[in-house]
Amino acid sequence: MLVARKAQELDVVELTEDLPEYGLKQGDRGAVVAAFDEPAEAYDLEFVEASGKSKLAYSVRANQILTVDPDAEEAYKRGLELIASGRTLEGRRSLRHAVKLKPDLIGMLLNSVLDNFGRSEDWDQLVPALRFISELNPDYDIARNNLVIAYLNHGISQARKGDVEGALQLFYSAAGIGMSQETLSWVKHNLVAAHTALGIRAHKQASQEADPEAALGQYKIALTNMALACAIDPSDKTRRNLGLANAFLGNALLKNGDFTAFAFFEVAEDMGLAFPKLFNNHAVALAGLGQQEAAIEFLEKAIDIEADYETAKKNLNQIKLALAEERTGAGFNLEELDISFNQVSPMQRYDYQVAA
């Protein structure tokens, strides 16, 4: 239990009971303006309200106050000892009381945690400790930023082990914390990297599937992840990847005879993709829907880019022949799309921020 200690002038003290004659309550804090030993130990105290107005209390007895700094330091030391001995709940209570008495101790606590766990990958110790410090003072930016960094470093560690889903969960945990613009940019980069990695993985799995429906499912997963990456951080790379994911899904639909694939080719083109195979396949989808004139336009675009593109030339002749003979259902050739995605790698381990 904390006990009262002899105070000195300018010490910060806390009332242990109400002083109604001065309009003061237990827990109010003030500064010692005068200390007396005769006829008994007593103090004159000054209390400053939030408005800036001061209140004075005279001849306050020693048993009516606690000297804040010594008691705070005692509580802080005791808290660390309790935690080290495995009595975490009691230790946290003592640390919480110490920081309440002396808010500046939170910086010392943060640096102690970083010294002990910041260079290791002991996430089970580091993350709960940083969360506790953030809870002690939700407005303490350095603690929140370090918690973000811990989640990022943990996620990067998981990604290096091949657990991209686990890494993504940790990155989203980081995203839910208030943070600086610098740490926000780190979070966004790693979210994009993880979603891109999952999209590429799904695409590779789709290309290995013998079952068309299973392949379609994987292409849809790839598209979802590339769309999330682009939504988090729209850039030339993420837009291109989203365009490619739409093109690959459109291609898979077209192989299954689903001519609604044209809509996915349109999105791919809106994302800036413009290459002969894409235009050829877009034309095939349109022709399958009976939109021969629109199909001709895309085939001509493909041939403009690649004059010797034989598949597009054959398809163009087929459509023109079908129109001349008023036939439908002519056979058209589609092409495999073989363009690679942009890789986005997670950054290296981030440095923690110590308190001043």
Please render the helix and strand layout as text.
Layout: E1 12-15, E2 29-36, E3 42-48, E4 54-61, E5 65-67, H1 68-84, H2 88-101, H3 105-117, H4 123-136, H5 141-160, H6 164-175, H7 181-208, H8 212-232, H9 236-255, H10 261-270, H11 276-288, H12 292-305, H13 310-324
Antiparallel strand pairs: 1-2, 1-5, 2-3, 3-4
Please give a handful of descriptors for the protein shown.
356 residues; alpha+beta; Serine Threonine Protein Phosphatase 5, Tetratricopeptide repeat; 59% helix; rod-shaped
Describe what you observe in this structure.
The structure is a single chain. The chain is of the alpha+beta class and 356 residues long. Among the domains are: 1-102, no CATH class; 193-324, Serine Threonine Protein Phosphatase 5, Tetratricopeptide repeat, CATH 1.25.40.10. The protein is 59% helix and 8% strand. The protein has 13 helices and five strands. The protein has helices spanning 68-84, 88-101, 105-117, 123-136, 141-160, 164-175, 181-208, 212-232, 236-255, 261-270, 276-288, 292-305, 310-324; strands at residues 12-15, 29-36, 42-48, 54-61, 65-67. A five-stranded antiparallel sheet has the order 4-3-2-1-5. It is rod-shaped and about 120 Å long. The two termini are 30 Å apart. 38% of the residues are buried. The mean pLDDT is 91.
